[in-house]
Amino acid sequence: MAEIYDFVIIGTGSVGSAAGYYASQKGLKVLELDVAVPPHTQGSHHGQTRLIRHAYGEGEKYLPMLLRAQKLWDELQQKTHRDIFHQTALLNVGRQGTDFIENVEKSAQKYQLPYEKLTGDEISQRWENFNFSDDYVGILEKKAGYLNSEIAIQTYLDLAQEAGVDQRFDSAVQSIDFQDDIVVIETAQQVYRAKNVLVSAGTWVKELLPEMPVQPLRKVFSWFDVADNRLNEDEGFPAYAIEIDDEQTYYGFPGKDGTIKIGQHTGGQPITHRSQRTPYGDYASDKEEVLPLLLQYLKGVGSLNHGASCTYDQSPDGDFIIDQLPGHPNVQFVTGLSGHGFKFASVLGELAAQKAAQEEITTDLSAFKLNRFE
Ligand SMILES: Cc1cc2nc3c(=O)[nH]c(=O)nc-3n(C[C@H](O)[C@H](O)[C@H](O)COP(=O)(O)OP(=O)(O)OC[C@H]3O[C@@H](n4cnc5c(N)ncnc54)[C@H](O)[C@@H]3O)c2cc1C
Predict the structure, then answer these.
(1) 235 and 97, same structural domain?
(2) Quick one: 176 and 157 in the same domain?
(3) 98: left (phi over 0), alpha (psi -120 to 50) or beta
(4) Same domain for 197 and 220?
(5) Residue 45 bears catalytic tag
(6) How remote is the CA of residue 313 from the centroid of ligand 1, in Å?
(7) Does 307 share its domain with 168?
(8) Contact at 8 Å (CB) between 328 and 176?
């Protein structure tokens, strides 16, 4: 009879790679399965970087997880000396009184995060490349910044391997079944058995769990040449999340190594199959979607250098889905990360490992349950 793992992780990209490492530190016998070899360009984690905002426009319910996530990223960096987190500061901008800006400020106040509130004019005085009128406000988070997502995943996978975790990449899980309390996981090559399972399969989770209310969304980001040195990270330019007219949200990173990466969080194309995630440039909008930002609000950005396509696993309300399968509490899933999940990967992995180890979970996850869609 084949070995029964304590914990099998299906999908070891952002959340799954973290879960594997934290579970290994609890002495669990862990197996990591992935259809590809992470980090890779077929999931939601490529393109080098992801923002980590702390004062959260998406709502206060994220704050306890977020603060723990940052602590774990810091620990990972200290432990490995790898280039994971850049504390560049992060500027949130929106019109005064919008939900986004109110949520950012409320959560900064409630959790005593260091922040500075700036008028549109003050933003433009401090960074001349920004151009905002005084009906916009900025909340500058000094301790936020960005994460090197691919380096972080590689780091978690390396640590897990060193700790003795079994890793089977290029192994697509085809089905999950049950034999009493044991979960049976089938790949094209082999059948595995587990006491606990985490499904962290990203965009295509419905291939394994069809009941998940997740819509895959094709998204792109673009790299532009830096035409003005003041946009660079080493000149003190911050990361940013900007909501224009209470409608379109853009985000970006300070310039580095000659390019500056910019994306639009809103928009994108709903898709139903992997083949529909076509390369950057396939839609005319790919190269145009950040133009409203560049034409009016952010100056000094040069020509388009290159772009990439990616996917969001969009939940109906844009909030995460963190739960266990009804009737099968030993199968956890983390999905619906809706284009803002990377910053949480560390803490979501830690929580999954705690659940697999039957530890008490003190973080309030009630806002993220699947049954809110019933
Ligand atoms: C353009 C873009 C910009 C973003 N910007 C930000 C940002 O600034 N800040 C932020 O916090 N978040 C951001 N995000 C969101 C963030 O990157 C995602 O929420 C996060 O990476 C999702 O993590 P995951 O573990 O769910 O998925 P992934 O990292 O994609 O991992 C899923 C893994 O599951 C594997 N898999 C799938 N199916 C199977 C199967 N059947 N068998 C085995 N393995 C399988 C895949 O190969 C993959 O490795 C952005 C996303 C995109 C696309």
Answers:
(1) yes
(2) yes
(3) beta
(4) no
(5) no
(6) 8
(7) no
(8) no
CATH number at residue 285: 3.30.9.10
Atom index in ligand 1 nearest the CA of residue 205 equals 38
What is the dihedral angle through the alpha carbons of 166, 168, 173, 178, rounded to the nearest 10 degrees?
-20
Residue 27 within a domain: yes
The pLDDT assigned to 3 comes to: 87
> How many domains is the chain built from?
2
Backbone angles phi, psi at 13, to 5 degrees: -85, -120
Helical pair 14-24 and 149-162, crossing angle rounded to 10 deg: 30
Model pLDDT for residues 51-101, shown as the tens digit of each residue: 999 998 899 999 999 999 999 999 999 999 999 999 999 999 999 999 999
The CA-based angle 42-31-149, given to 5 degrees, is 40
DSSP structure class, residue 298: B
Q: Which residues pair with 221 in a beta bridge?
A: 263, 308
Question: Based on the domain organization, do 305 and 254 belong to the same domain?
Answer: yes
To the query of whether residue 49 is one of the catalytic residues in this protein, the response is yes
Q: What is the pLDDT of residue 363?
A: 96
Ligand 1 mean position, distance from CA 52 (Å):
15
Catalytic residue, chosen from 45, 310, 335, 340, is 310
pLDDT digits (tens, 9 = 90+) for 238-293: 999 999 986 899 999 999 999 999 999 999 999 999 999 999 999 999 999 999 99
Residue 172 pLDDT more than 90? yes
Look at residue 2 and tell me whether its pLDDT is greater than 80: no
Q: Identify the band that residue 1 occupies on the pLDDT scale cut at 50, 70 and 90.
A: low
Q: What is the domain range of residue 268?
A: 90-142+215-314
Give, using CA atoms, the residue closest to atom 31 of ligand 1. 13
261 is catalytic: yes
- What's the token pair of residue 82? 């790898």
| CATH number of 180's domain | 3.50.50.60
Distance CA 208, CA 58 (A): 28
Q: Which of 15, 10, 18 is nearest to 36 (CA)?
A: 10
Of 314, 329, 355, the residue that ends a domain is 314
Question: Position 191: which residue type?
Answer: V
176 contacts: CB under 8 Å, gap ≥ 6: 10, 183, 184, 185, 186, 197, 199, 208, 209, 331
Catalytic site residue 310? yes
